[in-house]
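note to self: dont lose this again. the chain is below, predicted strucutre after it. 84 aa total, dont forget to put it in the shared folder this time
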Amino acid sequence: MKKLVLYNCIEVLRAERHLSRQQLADAVGINAQTIGFLERGDYGPSLELAFRLARHFDLPLEAVFSTRPFKPLSSELYGRKRSP
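---
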């Protein structure tokens, strides 16, 4: 059975809100290193943690996590594709 890859946009959301990894970790009750692991895709969160993160950003779960890669913001806003 193929392992499910879970993508997220935590790093982008943190940057938009001017949050450090430590500030986000404190807000959701985890270690700051875990935020780094999540952002790099080295760690898949529990369902509980995924909901806590989505709730912290006041977004639906699927706006923070996806089984498909997130499109670059420029393509979302302007319909441009990423250059190779």
